[in-house]
Amino acid sequence: MADQITYTFPLAFYYESKLPVPIDEIVKSLLALEKLAAKVPLLLGELSGTKIDLHSLKVEKIESGSLKELLEMSISFLSEEDKTKFKAWLKGTKMGQATKVAALGGLASLAVLLIASQAITTYDTFTKTDTPSIQANHNVIINIGADATGVSAERLTKAIDASMTGDKKKVVTAALNFVSPAAGENGGGLYLGKDKESGIAFSHQAATDAPAQADFRVRDVEHRYEKTEVVIKVLDRDKVESGWKAILPTVAAEKRLPLYFADGMAPGKAATEESVFADVIVTYAQDFNKGSMIPKSVLIQRIY
What is the CA radius of gyration of the chain? Predict the structure, then answer.
């Protein structure tokens, strides 16, 4: 078997804490880090235009008190050409040069922090919580990452999203477990590097505000559309509370949706005409893993 073509990065994270971190929290954060690290090659490959796999993740040293995790990540390439292309890309970024951030934390550490922060922020947005500490901290981390890798914040965000392909729920769960030692009254920030010197962190407030566990149940979301065409496909003139179905050509043209009328509203023209224009509320089922909204039903509020 031919020797694998690899490249090795240091990983370092520092959890500021007033008290020693319990062993179960350390184990949980390391297992979570392993899951997040598996996404790093996808992110680096997306940014560098190369094909990369995770070769290994090894723990070099763990120090408790304020928890310090020092690790080593090796990535593998399909060819020497890919490795050469990756090294050329890396050399052209701030993280690949002898900058303060590169020396203290390293590109792989920043990549892990970017993925964790984006996963938690995406979940925070999905739940409509929009927690200020989480959203603001993520904007800071994204801007630092964009500057370090030489791409726009928008481009970096898309690359992180691409790296989280597959079961996004598992990435969110890992991210929450990864930052959890930084939460609570005894916690502090989760810093990139061996100590606080880098200043790059998932903040204590954001870690505390993040949920201990994620709730991925499908949620219903309502959207209102004004003067929208409603094509009646099935109707029941004897009642308005059930038995009606319609399609909305400009909103949901491929699926017949259950159609309802607002309380006290008569079907009016909908009972005699093939289509009407109306103000409607469409209820969608929102699934986190699919990242899409599926229309479930239509409520007519006003017919023109």
Answer: 25
| 38 and 184 both lie in a single domain | yes
What pTM was estimated for this model as a whole? 0.81
Task: Write out the chain's pLDDT in tens, 304 residues.
Answer: 356 899 888 899 999 988 888 889 999 999 999 999 999 999 999 999 999 988 899 998 898 878 899 999 999 999 999 999 998 998 888 766 644 445 446 888 999 999 999 999 999 988 878 999 999 999 999 999 999 888 999 999 999 999 998 889 999 999 999 999 999 888 889 999 888 888 899 999 999 999 999 988 777 889 999 999 999 999 988 887 888 999 999 988 888 999 999 998 989 999 999 999 999 999 998 878 777 788 999 999 999 9
Residues 196, 293, single domain; the answer is no
Identify the domain containing residue 13 by its residue range.
5-209
Candidates 133, 131, 157, 130; CA nearest to 143 is 157
- Does residue 161 sit within a domain? yes
Bridge partner list, 190: 15, 202
Which residues are 302's β-sheet partners?
279
- Phi and psi at 32, nearest 5°, equal -65, -40
Which DSSP string corresponds to 33-71? Answer: HHHHHTTHHHHHHHHHT--EEEEEEEEEEEETTTEEEEE
